[in-house]
Amino acid sequence: MTTVIVDYASGNLHSAEKSFQRMARETGAGAVVVSGDPDVVRRADRIVLPGVGAFADCRAGLLARPGLFAAIEARAIGEGVPFLGVCVGMQMMAEVGREHGDTPGFGWIAGEVVRLAPVDPTLKVPHMGWNALEILWPHPVLAGVAPGDHVYFVHSYHLAASDPATVLARADHGGPVTAAVGRDNLVGVQFHPEKSQAAGLRLIANFLAWRP
Prior knowledge:
Elements: E1 2-6, H1 14-27, E2 31-35, H2 38-42, E3 46-49, H3 55-63, H4 68-78, E4 83-86, H5 88-91, E5 96-97, E6 103-104, E7 111-115, E8 127-132, E9 134-135, E10 150-155, E11 157-161, E12 167-172, E13 176-183, E14 186-189, H6 197-209
Parallel strand pairs: 1-2, 1-3, 3-4, 4-14, 5-7
Antiparallel strand pairs: 5-6, 7-11, 8-10, 9-12, 12-13, 13-14
Helix pairs in contact: 1-6
């Protein structure tokens, strides 16, 4: 079994690689590799798509790698391998991102990515730091992550899903913030599991064992 963390020059992947490799060793989940090679992605048993920065920049960076998105979509949508989007990697699963104009997303989760708008003017955007999770729907990837567990966020936008059933968890930052989404073999988290200590490592271990 091989889990591929997709490298398309969107952020430092070192901490994510180390966290996934650690949990793969501890759980016997096989190899974890970082690669931007479409041929490697086509052979992946699980795919992790990270993303740091602006929606449009991440989308453009991904599409600039010939064949890479096609390989991701073929495996995740065409063949149903487990897929995890992280931060902007989750946001791109939506239909459209509204950051700096409108940018098409993958269309895998119905909804749009919109700027956070806290009702409390003292709350800053970007939303940076630890927030408690509210688990809305049980999911194997969230098993053992308790309501109230804190995870680490760094973002200014979130996925406003059209179907509430796809929102697995949320946080509060002057209003509800989508923290996790999912359907079928797809799951996405707005927070960074690799920076979220025990709760994040539990989520990573769950993903590596997930057989949707």
